[in-house]
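Why does residue order matter? Because the sequence determines the fold. Keep that principle in mind as you read this record.
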Amino acid sequence: MTDIDWNSGSWTTEPAHVVVADDGMRVTAVEGSDAWRITSYGFVHDTEHALLTSFDQDTAMEVSFLLDFSAQFDQAGIFVKVDDSTWIKAGVERSDGEDSLGAVVTRGFSDWSLSPVPGWHGRLVTIRASRSGDALTVRARVDDEPWRLVRVAPLDPDAAVTAGPLCCSPSRADLTVHFTAWRTEPADTSLHLDA
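Structure:
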């Protein structure tokens, strides 16, 4: 596994504040920042704070952060981008009073899936996106617990793709996310880890 330098990526939207230190990167989101396209809400939000670098075929990327959310739609994780209307965000989001693990897959229109993770608050969350063949496989875990499968989504094997840490704060101005790691390694060899 290889660490990615926090200074090697480019922001899709500049955060309010960024501090890089020995223990990782702290990102303060701008109030109203989010990523969404049309479905159900009727709007396009493309103001997410995603620090992106090249994400090659047959590669996996991991982002780790400390989970400390309190406001509706606080979120952090990984953002995988092909273009402005083709992208995937996956991680933990605070929704209706609880932290939930989920993903938004967008190909013109966004979809959204969530699953509550009530025991994860205050712990280290890692989101892993693995690019292989025509798919992106997203897994997550808390601390050193086993990986959970979050999503398998189509991803053009020939597309130029970027990816990296993501945070958004649709409903408040003072969300700061402490990212502790950003890493890459070869893609997972199987969809099912025990295979």
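Residues 2-184 form a domain with the Jelly Rolls fold (CATH 2.60.120.200).
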